[in-house]
Amino acid sequence: MAGSLGGKTAIVTGALGLLGREHCAALASAGARVVAADLDGQASAAFAGKLAAAHGAEAMGLALDVTSERSVTEGRDAVLRALGSIDVLVNNAAINDKFEHPAAEESRFESYPLELWKNMFDVNVTGMFLCSRAFGTVMAERGHGSIINIASTYGIVGPDQSLYRKPDGTQSFYKTAAYPATKGAVIAFTRFLAAYWGHRGVRVNALSPGGVENAQDGHFVAQYAARTPLGRMASPGDYRGAIVFLAGDDSAYMTGANLVVDGGWTAW
Length: 268
Fold this sequence. Notes:
Layout: E1 9-13, H1 18-29, E2 33-38, H2 41-55, E3 59-63, H3 69-83, E4 88-91, H4 104-107, H5 114-142, E5 145-150, H6 178-197, E6 202-209, H7 218-226, H8 240-247, E7 258-261
Parallel strand pairs: 1-2, 1-4, 2-3, 4-5, 5-6, 6-7
Helix pairs in contact: 1-2, 1-8, 3-5, 5-6
């Protein structure tokens, strides 16, 4: 797919995260001018410099708080001033619950803090809404564009809580309610926006990745792999092809879809 996105400007939110960096690299390798957007503008600019050097493509770092309407609007204006167009938006910015050990009680649904629920919806859902409205409106006004919303298998099926059980049968963490609820909302919003902007030439699709191996406890990795038809967790680079496909013209007749790339996790 090298060069398939030549001349296009692609914005990735949450660009400094594990998958955000991979999404940026995939788009840059396909020839896109990548805007790496994250809270830390200095770190985003440094990462953009590395992208440009590695892929020979223009790249830009952008300080962006997806929960702030002002930050998103200012970010849109900065991109248009610097690059002149917006063609692709990857709504990747998201948070997930992290608890200090032991976390069993706080992560249980019965005692899950309301503040954590609200905060996750603010980032994972409201942030997606604000970015889609600001950057997507530019696409709609110009009659073309692709928005990719990063969802999750947990937006499709419920979490298997047994995965978080230790070999001795104890459990110090439960997958909380907020993450699956926000990712389900991502998929529903994707369908809404695809139907709303289809006649304006803007395609909107979701990508639902499976779990990525990232220094988790060995027993968790083994249990996840055993639950997956391909017998392993994803590596960070396993989603590069899907991102480039959804961003470019190879998916020109695809909108409102949820592309599931999960090693078969949701197949059984």
